[in-house]
């Protein structure tokens, strides 16, 4: 599969600098991903979103994400432009993750740009399910060969224009321009259902940091005893939320999706018809009100994930992952 020829427009960096300076685009934390030739529904599905879920513009999704804090609400806005789907995240980074780009780029091409207030940044190019290269444009790491045709003339030496240059990179790959009209118009919008929070890559790291005594015990106990402890952890987590100790990944996804649906609704922007004092009062009320149904759905997602974790082939990993999810179920506020 061939990569597209670079589309270099001389005004691209100035265009994005203007949008960022005017707050038409998020300047603090933003991720823009472009994928070629997919429908919006397919792009959202591959990305971890839910097609036909909601409609919103970038500004609204950013407000909902901030209103959710300290809870997590990752959101994406998706719309088609000239044969490419743009996936835009206000205060997100999902499109900067290697496995997401690999999944999204199956049989096609993907480019993404990401930065946040902590000076983390990435430009990425993926094709045919393979990440061809990634470049940290803030630190200025070595530029991968695959990205060079699209980076020609982008110096990334002006700290005030680096983010604009990163968006110009996505435009050069896709040939599509992210406009102010696109950014401020409602498109398909979704929470991102990322199940990795339930499936820690190395659960023993979590156990070592949080319950080192249990990890020490597991290192010397028999496999049967460790396996039994994992199963009991999962059983207790499920009993605490009145569900049977049996689960599939689809069960976890269903509960977590419900969590995010309720969180999205809870974190709506203030009614613009209200005066500032009334908006502030509404915000205080939202933060003080316990979202019981949302918390229960989240607890159940983690409890079911503990059941799945307890089946891991390695008994120590099974115990560690089960404990991780059981503790998170208990901490769901």
Report what the structure shows.
The structure is a single chain. The chain is an alpha+beta fold. The chain folds into two domains: 12-192, no CATH class; 196-331, no CATH class. 48% of the residues lie in helices and 15% in strands. The N and C termini lie far apart (48 Å).
Distance between the termini: 48 Å
Q: Helix and strand succession?
A: HEHEHEEHEEEHHHEHHHHHHH
| Structural Rg | 22 Å
Coarse structural class: alpha+beta
Based on the model shown, name its key terms:
single chain, 333 residues, alpha+beta, 2 domains, eight-stranded antiparallel beta sheet, 14 helices, 8 strands, 15% strand, globular
Short note summarizing the structure:
This protein is an alpha+beta fold and 333 residues long. It has helices at residues 12-21, 40-47, 58-68, 98-104, 148-151, 162-174, 180-184, 203-210, 212-220, 223-240, 249-266, 276-288, 292-309, 315-331; strands at 30-36, 54-56, 75-81, 84-90, 109-115, 121-127, 130-135, 187-191.
